[in-house]
Amino acid sequence: MRTHLKEIGYEVIRAIAPLLVVVIILQFTFVKATAGAFLQFLLGTMLAIAGMILFLIGIEVGILPAGKTVGAGLIEKRSIWLIIAIAFLIGFSTTIAEPDVLVLSGQADLITEVTIPVGSLVYIIGIGLAFFVTMAVMRIILGFRIAYLLTASYLIVIILSFFTPPEFVALAFDAGSVTTGALTAPIVIALGIGLSSVMAGRSAISDGFGLLGLASIGPIIAVMIVGMIVS
C-alpha cells in the first residue's frame, strides 16, 4: 500500500508540477499578485494534490474492483432488463457526481446566457451518457462491432450540428469531453471489462475498451437536442 501511495503521489505531482512552475514564473515576472493571494494559491495547490492522491487511491482500491464485480455479476443473473437498468443507473449516477461535469455546468450560464439552469445541465449530460453506456453494454452482449455504433452516432452528431445554435454546439462537445474524467472513466471501463470477462469466447480488451468513447457521444447529442428545443 505504501508503494502504491508513492506511485500515485509521484504521478499527481508530475501532472501538476508544470502548471505550478508556470504560475510561479508568471508571479515573479508579469502578474506580481499580492503575497496573500500567492500563498493562498500555493496552499490550494497542496490541498488539491492531497485530494487527488486520496481520490485516485479510492478509485483503484474500491471503485475499479467493484465495477468489474458488478459487470461480471450482471451476466450471471441472465436478465437483459436488469443489465439495462443497472448500466443506465451506473452511467447516470457516476456522471452527475463527476467533478468535471459539475465544473462545466457551473460555467454554463456564461455560454448559454442562462438558457439552461445549472442543475438541469448536469442531469441532461447524465441522461445522455447513461443512454449510450446502455447501448455500449448491449453491444458487448450482442457482439456486433463498435464501429457501426460509432459511425451512426457521429453521423447523428454531424447532422444535428447544422440545426443546433453555435453556442450549444460548443457546449455539447465540451459536455462530451468532461464525461471522460477521473470518476466516470474507470467505472464505465471496469463495467465493460467485467461484463466481457465472463462471456465465453470474448475478449475483455476488445469489448471493454472503446466503451467510454462511445458513451461520451451521448452528452453531445443530448445537449444539442436540448439546445434546439430551448432556442
Q: Which helices and strands appear, and what pairs or packs with what?
A:
Layout: H1 2-31, H2 35-77, H3 80-96, H4 99-112, H5 118-142, H6 146-161, H7 166-178, H8 184-197, H9 204-208, H10 211-215, H11 217-230
Describe the structure using short key phrases.
single chain, mainly alpha, 2 domains
Runs with pLDDT <50, length 5+? none
Computed Rg:
20 Å
Portion of residues within helices: over 70%
Provide mean pLDDT, rounded: 82
Describe what this molecule looks like in 3D.
With 231 residues, the protein is an all-alpha fold. The chain folds into 2 domains: 1-65; 79-230, no CATH class. Helices cover 85% and strands 0% of the residues. Helix 2 (35-77) runs parallel beside helix 8 (184-197) and helix 7 (166-178) packs antiparallel against helix 11. The longest helix has 43 residues, at 35-77. The chain is flat and about 60 Å long. The model has no long low-confidence stretch (mean pLDDT 82).
Give a quick precis of the structure.
The protein is mostly helical. Helix content is 85%, strand content 0%. The protein has helices at 2-31, 35-77, 80-96, 99-112, 118-142, 146-161, 166-178, 184-197, 204-208, 211-215, 217-230.
